[in-house]
């Protein structure tokens, strides 16, 4: 416990308190740079100066931590006293929208890479992203992907209009997060999509029916995996929509409904002709979904499958027909 006293002081304490603690024998961490890193993260200039002047080491994380908190004065002090830095100083400043800190770091020669743009985009820091891009910071599809996933419409629009690459993953992330406005923008502006746009809409937390409808009605492909993932999540309305609109399904739909105990989903699938096999019973039993197992066994007349069959490999490997 005593080894944490000095670290606690580094967060909010002062140099005189730290000096007293050291004189009383409270130890530093074995890695003395921890003290500088904690002080920098919390913007505690007083402690950072004390630590540096009393022989504590520091490293690249010291600058990165100062940038993360937007503590420009702390960052300046560290650099003016030869503390090293790396690309994470810029990335951390961008992630938290600390534009002045990012400008200082870049103007002083701090390296950056695509993650600076990516982190700025993820958290919607448009001005930070603009600065980075205008100053030649690289970006790639990750910038558009994180903007789509986190619902940062203005950021995505800026990135696209300024030549940032996107691909099928961008639509997939928008659909999986339920950002219908972003998905529409992507599609209307030529962003490609594939079956995983529908899969992610079907599988996302609570399911995104409106997003799935838009994708399907505008020609996005789907396959059995869409129904499978809807069943896995227990999203009956999504499964109904997909099936009623011609989305194919296979044994995986019933398997996943059984595996996760979604009895109503399993009932709907079976009653509407979805194929199943003995794996439906196996996975219901394996995960302890008794009512699901009872239903499947009673109407499928599968027999005592658990005595005679043990699965090898994945759920979908080498298994056969309806039964």
Automatic annotation (TrEMBL):
Coiled coil: none annotated. It holds the Pfam family Ank_4. InterPro entries: Ankyrin_rpt (IPR002110), Ankyrin_rpt-contain_sf (IPR036770), SecEffector_AnkRepeat (IPR052050). This is Ankyrin containing protein (ISS). It comes from Seminavis robusta. The lineage of its organism: Eukaryota, Sar, Stramenopiles, Ochrophyta, Bacillariophyta.
């Amino acid at each position: 416990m005593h080894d944490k006293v000095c670290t606690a002081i580094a967060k909010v304490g002062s140099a005189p308190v730290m000096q007293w603690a050291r004189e009383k024998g409270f130890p530093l961490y074995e890695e003395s740079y921890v003290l500088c890193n904690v002080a920098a993260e919390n913007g505690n200039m007083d402690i950072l100066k004390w630590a540096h002047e009393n022989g504590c080491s520091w490293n690249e994380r010291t600058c990165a931590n100062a940038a993360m908190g937007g503590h420009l004065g702390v960052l300046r002090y560290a650099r003016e006293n030869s503390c090293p830095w790396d690309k994470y100083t810029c990335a951390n400043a961008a992630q938290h929208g600390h534009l002045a800190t990012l400008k200082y770091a870049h103007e002083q020669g701090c390296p950056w890479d695509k993650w600076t743009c990516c982190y700025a985009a993820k958290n919607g820091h448009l001005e930070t992203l603009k600065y980075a891009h205008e100053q030649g910071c690289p970006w790639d599809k990750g910038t558009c992907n994180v903007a789509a996933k986190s619902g940062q419409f203005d950021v995505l629009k800026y990135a696209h209009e300024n030549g940032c690459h996107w691909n099928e993953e961008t639509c997939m992330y928008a659909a999986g997060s339920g950002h219908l406005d972003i998905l529409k923008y992507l599609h209307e502006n030529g962003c490609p999509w594939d079956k995983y746009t529908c899969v992610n809409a079907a599988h996302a937390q609570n399911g995104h029916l409106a997003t799935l409808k838009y994708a399907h009605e505008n020609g996005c492909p789907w396959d059995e995996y869409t129904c499978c993932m809807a069943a896995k999540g227990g999203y009956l309305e999504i499964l109904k929509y997909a099936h009623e609109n011609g989305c194919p399904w296979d044994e995986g739909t019933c398997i996943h409904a059984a595996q996760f105990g979604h009895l109503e989903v399993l009932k709907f699938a079976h009653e509407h002709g979805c194929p199943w096999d003995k794996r439906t019973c196996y996975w219901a039993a394996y995960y302890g979904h008794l009512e699901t197992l009872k239903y499947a066994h009673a109407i499928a007349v599968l027999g005592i499958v658990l005595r005679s069959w043990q699965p090898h490999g994945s759920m979908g490997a080498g298994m056969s027909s309806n039964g």
